[in-house]
Amino acid sequence: MTTVLRSSGTLTRDALTVLQPGFTGTTAPDWLLRRIGEGLSAVGLFGRNIVGAEQLAALTAQLRAERDDVLVAIDEEGGDVTRLEVRTGSSFPGNYALGCVDDVELTRAVARELGRRLAACGVDLNWAPSADINSNPDNPVIGVRSFGAGTELAARHTVAYIEGLQAAGVAACTKHFPGHGDTNVDSHHAMPRIDVDLATLHARELLPFRAAIAAGSKAVMSAHILLPALDPHRPATLSPQILTGLLREELGYEGLIVTDGMEMQAISSTYGIERGSVLALAAGADAICVGGGLADEETVLRLRDALVGAVRDGDLPEERLADAAARVRALADWTRRIRGASAEPGAAFEEGTAPGSDIGLVAARRAVRVTAGELPYEPVTGAPYVAAFTPVANIAVGDETPWGVAAELAALLPGTGTGTYGARTEASDVVTDVLKGAADRRIVAVVRDVHRHPWMAQALDALLAARPDTVVVEMGLNRAEPRGALHIATHGAARVCGRAAAEVITGREAGI
Question: N or C terminus: which one in the chain shows less Cβ crowding within 10 Å?
Answer without folding.
Answer: N
